[in-house]
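Quick log. Single chain, no ligands specified.
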Amino acid sequence: MAPTTPPPAPPSTPLPLPLNLTNEQILNAGATIVPLFIVPFDPNNPSARKVGIPVIVTPDEPTHGSQLPDPVLFEFDTGGKAFWADRGKLPSLTGCADHGEVFTQYTSGITYFGKALDVYVSLLAETGPGPVTTKATIAAVDTILRPKDQQESVSAFPIFNYFSGDFGASLQNTASAPQLPLKHQLPSPYSPPSSMPEMLGVLSQLPYNNGAGFIVDLVNTGPYVGNDLPQGTLVGRLILGGIDTLAASFPLPYTMPSAGTYTQLFGSETTINAYAEGVATGTAYVQTAGSPYGSAADISYVMDTGATETTFYPGTNLGTNMQPAVGDTIVLNLTDGQTVMNFTAGNQQCDDLTAWGNGDRGNGCVNTGLGMFLQFPVLYDLANGKLCLPAQAS
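-> predicted structure:
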């Protein structure tokens, strides 16, 4: 009897390079490096990691030589919209313009209630010119709810043991009304406001030198030195600006889907381009050993530093046949066939853990999770609306 020919593997390419820009390249481009901390936040699960960013919030614009308060660590979340900060960790914001109540829920079950306030946000420079400061409308969080015994209940900061809120780095603004149905039902007497002021992430509003945009580099890291974060914490880089020069090192550009525009709530009410939370599109593949692969074309990818697993959300093109299981091969390709993830599904958070999400997401959606960012740096060109990746590894 002739041997059985195994079915072909999903189409794939080499991943983008783990490109390491030198400090000299970055400084010559006029860019600023802000530290990002990759924190093993769960002592019982060392593979589970979250990314933190130190941020300073002040009611007034800092002046040259002025004494700034100590920075506070927030979760750096490219899948989250707007900046949600524990009011208890902020200075007095009396006198800041108040635009009313805001509310958000995360898939994790964390729910925030707060007030949308106009403040100044500063990111400290590890290398290069800084601090980098902008005025922005952020959420000062008064109430946090979290799941307990399968029920949302009043909780307290920090989240994930170390973070005083969520520094959303998604390029899409928040909605003017809560998304219904809610991800998690709220206990009495809590209910979301019927309408809310819209907010946009700080990174979409910063003043940038030599090209608007930023680079998330969680690949080229150094050890953390200090006592505030746990052993095993690594320090990556958020590179602000310099995109007109540094984009040459990221030769794989992809147009980010537009999400319209956002109008700032203060000053001259500047209009800013917004981009969809699903910043890229492509085809996902799932293959069980010994079986033909399944595929879902023209789906969106949420590239999310805030998620610890790769989650598939069903839609018109992504059916239940694509629900991944341990041992399956997972391949995520962009529209031109460039592979951004290729792994065997397992049980390690931020590495090979997969999940199946709830709710219809249009054609379907995959949230890459943090694991993708641990493979190669990603450049966001805000001036030209492009997501750019390094060249393929050889």
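The mean pLDDT is 95.
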